[in-house]
Specification:
By secondary structure, the protein is mainly alpha-helical. It has two helices and no strands.
Length: about 110
């Protein structure tokens, strides 16, 4: 009986080692799959973040153009006011206005 019990002990020791190796292998493979998934998610999120940065830059450029346009329209009224007040300029009446038209060439008519 002592021989049988020693063999049972040896088989019980071998099986847990194999079980632990298989379990460890499964955990390592699962960890590798999770790393690949995390890298994929990171790249996807980074691509989306880059898209938002480009959109932000485009909106900032458009905002700058709109500010310049607003300043241009404001400056036009200010120039007109200064021309009238400081330089005493005025729009001539219709009687003092002369319209000059240039003769059209045949190439211009097309």
């Amino acid at each position: 009986m002592t021989t049988v019990s020693i063999e049972n002990v040896k088989t019980k020791i071998k099986n847990p080692k194999v079980f632990y190796y298989v379990l460890l292998l499964i955990l390592v493979l699962g960890s590798a799959v999770m790393v690949v998934f995390q890298v994929f998610e990171y790249r996807h999120d980074y691509r989306e973040l880059s898209k938002y940065y480009r959109e932000r830059d485009d909106l900032n450029a458009e905002w700058g153009r709109l500010l310049i346009e607003q300043q241009t329209f404001g400056a036009t009224a200010q120039i007109g006011t200064r021309a009238v007040t400081q330089l005493r300029m005025y729009s001539p009446p219709a009687k003092q206005t002369v319209v000059i038209s240039l003769p059209m060439k045949t190439e211009d008519k097309k």
